[in-house]
Amino acid sequence: MFITVDEIAVHVRVEGPAGGVPLVLLHSLGTSSHIWDAQAEVLARSFRVIRPDLRGHGLTEATSGDYTMALLAEDLAGLLDALNIGRVHLGGISIGGMIAQEFAATHPERVASLILCDTAMAIPPVELWRERIATVRAQGIGAIEEAVLARWVTPGFVAAPEARGLRAMLRTTSVDGYAGCAAAIAAADLAACTSTLRTPAVVIVGDSDLATPIASSQALHGTISGSALIVIKGAAHIPTVEKPAAVTKAIVDFLTPRAEPYEAGLAVRKQVLGDAHVARSFANATEFDRDFQRFITETAWGKIWTRPGLDRRTRSLLTLAITAALGREEEFKLHLRATRNTGASHEEIAEALMHTAIYAGVPAANAAFRMAKEVFKETP
Predict the structure, then answer these.
(1) Which one, of 20, 15, 82, 85, lies nearest residue 51 by Cα?
(2) d(CA 155, CA 269)
(3) Fewer Cβ atoms within 10 Å of its own Cβ: the N or the C terminal residue of the chain?
């Protein structure tokens, strides 16, 4: 979709359940939101994944002149405001990670955690950036293509289809967008603002990164108290593309730390059914059924709904089909109302019930359609 922010058209991909916890992923200089494709495919099963193209990159409009980290951070603030999103998990690679640091320092109340990938508080030398900006503005992106790609991936990966895709992203980046963002990097020294961060964070870096080497990530890790540092083997500056599975695992492990089944289940139960419903369930519990409430929270929600194999939308549709087939009216209506949080649309619910009619019988599906229409009147 396209959203107007600061008078420019910003292209943004939004994936995952409507009620999912928001997760923003910012890409690197000269690429686009596509460098997070592999991670978004997995993360969108549980999170509301938001991937904008930075100013002058991908399909987002460019403006002329030098950009700053403050400007790019405010682009993000404007985008979140337009999407009516407050607090997010925020990840970024390279300049995306620098924007994330700036945003977390200036809008700490809006950042739940940070995922900083192959980035730094500063990326010297300034002279290199100034030379690159002059070259691009005089000769175009093609003049720096080989030098840039050699730093993005390891030598053995340069000919891979994914690396060729990175090359295509670079070639289609606007001169104004590349030069403007490069100027932001050249001028950035985030040490002072990053040292103020008290946000949970993980720092990820490829072991062969020449642009933002391990030493830069170690410095970042040391500056953000309590952060974790993960080194990805066999990867250079863009491990999200070169070693996607390793990066995805690092992010999933960080965002979904292992918790006791009850605590994990309670969190998911609230996210799917809503805080008010769960609060009522526990408030109405007595000694007679208190253990039962704990049992379903721990088992159904903590051991099944937390499994990564299916996204919440799919689990929601399965639950509707099963409860419709078994004639579990109360449970069916409960999970029908929960679809506002799981992202299952009315059209998808209708398809699930059509499927139910074939495999569980027309009477069961007929009753389910009737109940659904009643509930839809409550929650259009």
Answers:
(1) 15
(2) 47
(3) C
- Predicted TM-score of the model (pTM): 0.76
Is the pLDDT at 89 greater than 90? The verdict is yes
Backbone angles phi, psi at 82, to 5 degrees: -65, -30
Distance (Å, whole) CA 271 – CA 370 = 26
Instruction: Let me know: does 23 contact 33? Beta carbons within 8 Å.
Output: no
- Which residue bears the tokens 């309670």? 266
How far are the Cα atoms of 45, 148, 158 from residue 176, in angstroms, in the given order?
A: 35, 17, 26
- Closest to 47 (Cα-Cα) out of 303, 294, 251, 337: 251
Place of tokens 């964070």: 201
Dihedral angle of Cα 73, 78, 79, 82, to the nearest 10 degrees: 160
Q: How confident is the model at residue 254 (pLDDT cuts 50, 70, 90)?
A: very high
Contact 149, 170 (CB under 8 A): yes
- Those residues with Cβ within 8 angstroms of residue 9's Cβ, 6 or more apart along the chain or in another chain: 2, 3, 60, 61
Is the CB of residue 172 less than 8 Å from the CB of residue 214? no
For 93, residues 6+ apart whose C-beta sits below 8 A from its C-beta are 26, 27, 28, 35, 36, 117, 118, 119, 238, 240
Two tokens, residue 242: 């070169």
Q: How far apart are CA 52 and CA 48, in angstroms?
A: 13
Q: Radius of gyration (Cα) for the chain, nearest Å?
A: 23
Res 312 pLDDT > 90: no
Q: What is the pLDDT of residues 147-199, one digit of tens each?
A: 999 999 999 999 999 999 999 999 999 999 999 999 999 999 999 999 999 99
